Amino acid sequence: MIRLGLALIWLLHFLPRGARARVGSALGASLYAVGAPRRRVVLKNLQLCFPELTDAERRRLAFAHFRAFGRSLLDHGILWWGSEADMRSLVRIEGLENWRGISDRPVILLAPHFLGLDMGGTRLVADFRMSSVYSRQKNAAADRVFLRGRTRFGHATLFARQDGIRPMIRSLKSGEPFYYLPDMDLGARDSVFAPFFGVPAATITGVSRIAALAGAVIVPCVTRQLPDGQGYVVTLYPAWSGFPSGDLAADAQRMNAFIEERVREMPEQYYWLHKRFKTRPEGEANPYER
User: Fold this and answer.
1) Which of 29, 50, 67, 246 is the most buried (most CB within 10 A)?
2) Spatial contact of 78 and 86, defined as CB atoms under 8 Å apart
3) Alpha-carbon dihedral of residues 234, 273, 39, 147, nearest 10 degrees?
4) Which domain does 10 fall in, by range?
């Protein structure tokens, strides 16, 4: 099934961008209709994060999310098999001055899980040497495609998540910027519970620990999917001052608050398919099992 999906993405990457966006939106709509388990995850996340919305409003938002996801899925075909010129045309960069202004310290690009995450990372490594974390895929064919897609256009060093933080710190200290994905629920280990939309969320403390050990500056980096097949824009925000603060919980709360602000700007584009709240404080039930 995975090989069939990859073959479909390969075939459709030849479409013009506008046509690919329309087909991707239709694909996402189909996934919304047939993917009941993940649809329930998305709706549960939206219920927890947007309790002020009606059920009908959350369903419309979930539908918009699946359509945006379908678009991003097909656009990965450009990252995996398209030309460098097509990739550069698909993604543009804003706010580079916020990165270029830092010349004396290592830099962590804080990249939350919006649907354009891979587009932004691939576009940046086409111009700049960078490192990031890679999670090995169980399917060998998918693993090869994903790994090649993240390294084929530039100078990317990928560390396996299972290898811990030491290689990342060495890379940062050598001057290589680190594209860091900070907002998945990876369990209670090395995490604190910090509010995300007012809900305690297991939040990894790696960004604070790595920044402290490497003496690194945090530059937030968010990729937005543009409407009507116009592609993506990766935006670099001003560097954070006073981070890390020495208080892991306070740092996690600050990070989640920043991500929440960006989510409210484009709520359909956050990666709601992930079970963000599956790890709970002691005594609380897993909301996805109700």
Assistant:
1) 67
2) yes
3) 90
4) 2-284
